[in-house]
């Protein structure tokens, strides 16, 4: 009875243009040691809101559910920007401070309000070493962090939906292409191998795909997405000199997801199937990004940390 209390929960909080999705799931058994006094629960909750009210929505979630645990936050596509640049020839501990000036003309966030991190990009044959720089506005992050870190909730990572989606995929030596979406967000294409992102692209114009009929999907939408997939795989195989992708995995939280997969398979030379959500949460596909963020592996790679450890209050 005198055992030290330890949180039994991992929180995934995914911000979207029209809401906030929260999942709270128990830690893995390997995280729990003898003598820990814990009480686990499972919670999935979506709150409709606008970006202007994110902090109020997080407060509501705290008030309604008494949240606890280590939280990983997933920024929406509107909250972060990603650009690729040559890696500066500097010591690792100096790169971040130099990058804000290197990318200042490539993004819309002023350097003095910029929080950033980077991860290595695949090297083109004979090319310079590239990095992908992820940045977000410091003033917005400061508000979100203050709203989230209440009670026994502590933020472990701030990441993007691309890494959250990639974290749902089992590590494989073969490359998979993912077609993923959060509700009412644009579609994201990813090529992932061993949980590392080799290619990412946000497709524009497909945020309302969930409102389309089967006929509309078949008429033009599938063809348009198939073309983008072909362009992505050509880049991966020809420019990055990688072996062909082995499978296409789909996570579209829409009613016609199976129809989409069936039609996409007709246009594809490789198998197309559902990107499965880990059991027992497989029915909560609309929470895919939040679930991916809550899984343990996302904290285990430098690539997935993205904006972890940055000085939000500096």
Report on this model:
- The chain has 314 residues and is an alpha/beta fold.
- Among the domains are: 81-139, Dna Ligase, domain 1; 169-276, ATPase, nucleotide binding domain (Nucleotidyltransferase, domain 5, 2-Layer Sandwich), CATH 3.30.420.
- It has eight helices and 13 strands.
- The chain has helices at 54-65, 92-102, 138-148, 161-166, 214-239, 257-266, 288-294, 302-305; strands at 9-16, 19-26, 43-48, 68-75, 81-86, 114-120, 130-137, 152-160, 176-180, 187-193, 196-203, 247-251, 272-274.
- A five-stranded mixed β-sheet has the order 3-2-1-4-8. Strands 11-10-9-12-13 form a five-stranded mixed β-sheet. A three-stranded antiparallel β-sheet has the order 5-7-6.
- The longest helix is centred in the C-terminal third of the chain and has 26 residues, at 214-239.
- The chain starts with 8 loop residues before the first strand and ends in a 9-residue tail after the last helix.
- The model is unreliable at 1-5, 29-38, 299-306 and 308-314 (pLDDT under 50).
Radius of gyration: 20 Å
Question: What is the residue-averaged pLDDT?
Answer: 86
Strand content: 25-35%
The helix fraction, in percent, is 25-40%
Give the total of beta strands.
13
CATH architecture of the domain at 169-276: 2-Layer Sandwich
The fold-level CATH name of the domain at 169-276 is Nucleotidyltransferase, domain 5
User: Reading side by side through the largest sheet, how are the strands ordered?
Assistant: 3-2-1-4-8
| CATH structural class of the domain at 169-276 | Alpha Beta
Largest sheet: 5 strands, mixed
User: Topology as H/E string?
Assistant: EEEHEEHEEHEHEEEHEHEHH
